[in-house]
Amino acid sequence: MKWKSQLMQIKQKVLQISEYWYIGMLVILTVHRILVFACLDIVWADLGKGIPVFQFLVYHFLLNPNKVLFILVLIRHICAEKYDVKEILCAVTIYYITAHAMEVNHYDNVMTMVLLMLGAWGISFQKLIRIYFITVCVIVAEVVLASQFGFIENMMYQFDGRKVQMAFGFSYPTRFASHVFFLILWYWFLRDFRLKYAEAAIPVAAGFFVWFFCDARMNVVCLFSLAAVMIWQTYSYRKAGNNAACYRENSLLTGALALSPVIASAMITVLTVVYTPDHTLLQRLNVFISNRLSLTQKVIDIHGVHPWGKWIRLAGNGGFVTGNVKYLYIDSAFMQFSIQYGLVILVMLLALFCFIGIRGRRNGNSVLLWILMFVSLHAIIEPQLIELQYCPLLFAAFADLQKGETGGSWL
Amino acid sequence: MKRNEWIIVVLAILGMFITVGAAVFYQTTRVVKEAEGPFVEELAEEDDLKGYEEPEETVAYLMAHIMDGDLEKALRSCAIDDLAKYFNMSLYLQYGEDFVWLDMIPPADSDDEAYCNISRLRLASDYGHKIQECIDQLSSGKELKIYDIAVDEPENPDGKYYERLSSIEEILGARDVCECIVYMSVNDIPLELHLSLARYKRFWKVILFSPMDQYKMDGLYIIEGEKAPEEAEIMNLSDYQKETLPLNYLLINSRSEEDIDQMIYNYCIYLQRGDILSALTYYDFGNGGEEPQFSLELLDRQEEAARELQLLYYQMLLWKTDFEWAGRHYEDAPEYIVDFLRIMNMQYVNFVNAGEIDRNEDEIIYQIRYSYDSGIFSRNLVFSHQDGWKILRLEY
Question: Which of A245, A281, A309, A347 qualifies as a FRET site for A211, CA 20 to 30 Å off?
């Protein structure tokens, strides 16, 4: 049986190497996605031009990483310590649904996120977030500093009836504001029960900063609410004797938090569908959220809603400092799923997010549940829910949610 | 799973059902549907003739039906569908360095269905007139004898000749192009009819009723030929007269709407989507409630409507185009104008309002105002009422 133990050793080694490979891919793809939306004059497609090997690597590892990620996922699942039929069936189904949708609607970013999610199988989510947080923090800080020292442009936007909005080196102010919001969210996740009351000042300060310089209202609302929940959560931990293991959140509340993506999605969909300019309240709400309801309705009127989505060329205000005269954008992530990626992908993603909620609840991870609620709230208005550079929450569906570095059961 | 978790799962399914249900409800009840069967279709069978693999055969088919005076069948030998689908405007501008607005085929560069259908409607009428002219000049009440049909090639073609052909092939999206001459006599006067053909997939289709370098000429290219020798045989085209090529033009079905406001809304949405066939089903092409029957007049009326829509698209989408700059950069940026013309840009149009501006016994005129790229535009839609509202024309 010596060969069997040797084989097991090789398998373990490969699994370990694939984990490093995965983390490496996660880091370079995250850096790439952040820089794509920074005011840098990099023609990514030309990177490595003239050096065939470098060009090959850039193309397959950075610009079109899905094939490499697919191989990585295969290796990770083949070399897994335990084989779980349920998990494998789910992974295969998710992959095929996404692949078919991608063939119809041509959006490959969902596939990248799905492959990264499947590849996270067996890796500690906490570890992933720690590496991810440091990466994003460093790169975003560099972009902001570069914009302040004049190395890259700090775009100033001025729209009718709004104050000047600064983008801090990014293509649009809400992109920077969302980075701030998500970074604080992941900071909270890492701090968890060790969070001190004083640290709740971070989202408050960030909220005022974003309000004053970026006028990104949704991010401001989220940041202030986050501060309140942080204080309440810290208070609850303290009350439970600072013992995370003993702490149990109210079952009704955790259930509602786990359902928050579905509630948020249903809310924005119903509002968009019932919107009519003749209804005063809806009209006011529409104006308040910068015509998001009417614009999304217009997109549906022209392009329709399809089971597998449709490729639509959206045009936002990014790069147009006084506003784009050819503007058509779907801001809500949930509405993007419905219209661009298709209803099947919407249902799949909602199911995955609810599954994350159930897993978080089972593992007693209250902060993860609150994060799920906050990203859902944010996604009602903003589109960053499954953008790698902002929100890797989707990986929690397959990653190991046990606190610490050891592995646990999937469900 | 625990009981609590099952409750979450059930509630999640309910929530997803509400989300998807709301979207599907909107899609089925509020989103404008495309017209059902917007044009007449012909049932094709497996062993039906699909085309000719030799250019001489296509010309023989054309001449056989010209001889017969059968405009409809002769029209089927022209490259209507293919030119509409494969014409590359960017390459044409690079090669021809001249943008002549509506006098050229609209771009099929980005697979815009709207432009393809506009081209199909316009080309059908153009070719129809050319063929009618052939019938009038060559066969109607005259004695037409055809002696030979031959491909016209220079004796010693040089590299430039092939280079030129290759450019034309690229512009037309064809696999091959050639010129043919029909040697004939009309009332014993020897004549030559020059034609140009293109090969799409396996089959040759007529693209011009002139040689390729005369592509801008309006009429037919018929010149006096040499008298045929006494012993020259007259070609027997009776076999071709029995054959029918597949339908390649559109006859738009007609429908009406009871609610004029709803009709205007639907019409505008169709134009934004680039679904001009659905938009054109609202037009009154004079068929009454019947299925449209082929006639040159009907093709002309359809062409006129398609031309109006093309003008609407062009005037709006090109209103900020710098033609002076484009003229200097046809060689290095030929796609500049084509990018402006993309139908995808129609999604940025906002319809401002529509209101009645005039009315008489037979017609009602509505003015539609819309904005695009910070410009405000308007068009008048003229309606008539016969078993529901129909559009008579679009006025500038």
Answer: A281
